[in-house]
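Input for the complex:
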Amino acid sequence: MDLSERGLTAGKLVDMKWKLGVAVCSDECKSLNSPFVAMTLKVADASGKISTHTFELTIPQFQNFSEQMKDMAARMEMI
Amino acid sequence: AAMTEEEASAYRKFWKVHKNKIHDTLVSKTNWNNSLKKVSWRIDVKSQSKSAENINEPSAIVELQIENPEESQKTEVVQFEMDESRLAHVLQNMKDIEDQIVQYCQQ
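Predicted:
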């Protein structure tokens, strides 16, 4: 069932927090040198109950996410 | 016994060809937090309501599939809606992050 077929029970995005970090090294790799974006989203359901969701993105993953948001905004503007 | 020049050359060649992939694999193994598996979205338009006619208000419905690396069977699905102003706020966040990436990460 894809997104266009689902009934509408989406919550509302009430907060978004982010941080940009760099993974310096690990037990397996002396020089990771790997930037990442960590995000936390808070979504309120119809009853007002808030759920928190966090995830971590590599820079290319973040850029893809950001592109999607821009696409959405561009489409919304056309309406 | 030390390596022959031939062996050393083979190792160098292997490393040169595969080092990025190896590094990326090592990097992904060190994310023990959730990762974003998939992003889907659609735009809905509310065209009429009981109290107001022809409002034509678009809203973005987003679905995120969030995966935990330790328990990849369990995918968390999060759905939320954003109106134009909330999406604008999200885009500002994206821009702020991009600016910080440019400033701090010379890749």
